[in-house]
Design brief:
Length: 265
């Protein structure tokens, strides 16, 4: 299967003053897919490369993907929907997947606006996408999809959401990010003038602030083994020559404590 992942060409101004940011979802989801036995994965960062729609159309036409995947946070949703609309026009037979925080919570609205999308992957995506990919490859996804946890889809005008998939139990064993899918020379953190990486040390948050979506999204606080994570950082630094890190965790005191213990040991 030919699999094409696309970061929508969305621009937010503020965060981009500091530089271009590596879309970690592509490394984590692309790595999970490759590790499951689907090596033909290509990632196009239409945001960082500011790829216009007509050029993206040509890229999809040339690549002829069987599956197209994209992501969305809330401000990016229209660009994401449009990205998959282009894919639908150029490659009608491809399966179109959308994941990320916005469609996870807002799948009803997304399907009303963008009925050309085949599947929304809700929540933490690594295990769900592999289950779905296996069904797509076998040609049984239409029959099996109600039994695959963590999905939403349209079926005869009805929006169906399957039960949530459980959070990944062991991050050290399950996460297999493929950082090689990303064009590292493009991700520069301007204040330090060096490459920036955004690896996951922890997921979730142990707190439940009422205004916040993070604990609902990741559902359980889980952390990597600090030693294994520091090993990964060393490799990441060597392979990508990144000089700064952004640790996307919502529990910074816990992260700092765990990493300090690791360094001390
Ligand atoms: C690091 C970070 C930043 C960094 C770096 C961003 C980057 N591109 O790496 C900086 C500081 C630049 C930043 C900026 C912004 N951020 Co920010 N950021 C984060 C943070 C802390 C981590 C993101 C991350 O890398 N997570 C790890 C990856 C692996 O997770 P993920 O992308 O969600 O992907 C997983 C699943 O969602 C799913 N998935 C995602 N996409 C797909 C696609 C498919 C096909 C599948 C199958 C699965 C899948 O699988 C993945 C693995 O499990 C999150 C909060 C969080 N903890 O997630 C906020 C968060 C994403 N940011 C948020 C926002 C709003 C912004 C800004 C718009 C803020 C602003 N006003 O400028 C900008 C936008 C920047 C941009 N252009 O993308 C919000 C989005 C909320 C929403 N409703 O959508 C979040 C959720 C924080 C929050 N709760 O408010 N951000
Ligand atoms: S991520 Fe921050 S705001 Fe959200 S629940 Fe945790 S501590 Fe509260």
């Amino acid at each position: 299967m030919r699999i094409m992942m696309i970061q929508p060409n969305y621009h937010c101004g503020g965060a981009e003053i500091a530089g271009n940011w590596p879309p970690s979802w592509a490394a984590y989801i692309g790595g999970a897919i490759k590790h499951a036995g689907y090596p033909n994965v290509r990632f196009v960062d239409a945001m960082t490369n500011d790829i216009p729609d007509d050029v993206l159309t040509e890229m999809i036409r040339r690549n002829q993907p069987d599956v197209v995947l994209t992501t969305a946070i809330t401000p990016m949703i229209y660009k994401a929907q449009n990205t998959l609309k282009i894919a639908r026009q150029v490659r009608p037979q491809a399966k179109l997947l959308l994941g990320g925080i916005h469609p996870t919570f807002m799948y009803g609205q997304v399907f009303n606006e963008a009925p050309w999308i085949d599947y929304i992957v809700r929540g933490e995506g690594e295990e769900i996408v592999v289950n779905l990919m296996r069904a797509i490859e076998a040609g049984t996804d239409l029959k099996e999809r109600r039994n695959i946890k963590g999905l939403a889809f349209l079926e005869e005008d009805e929006i169906v959401a399957t039960p949530a998939h459980p959070p990944i139990r062991n991050l050290d064993e399950t996460l297999k990010p493929d950082w090689g899918l990303l064009e590292w020379e493009k991700y520069i953190y301007i204040p330090l003038n060096c490459r920036v990486a955004v690896p996951n040390f922890a997921r979730g948050c142990p707190f439940t602030c009422r205004f916040c979506s993070q604990w609902k999204f990741w559902r359980a606080y889980r952390a990597r083994d600090p030693k294994k994570f520091v090993d990964e950082l060393e490799l990441l630094k060597k392979n990508t020559r990144s000089g700064s890190l952004f640790l996307p965790t919502r529990s910074r005191p816990l992260t700092a404590r765990n990493l300090c213990i690791s360094v001390r040991n």
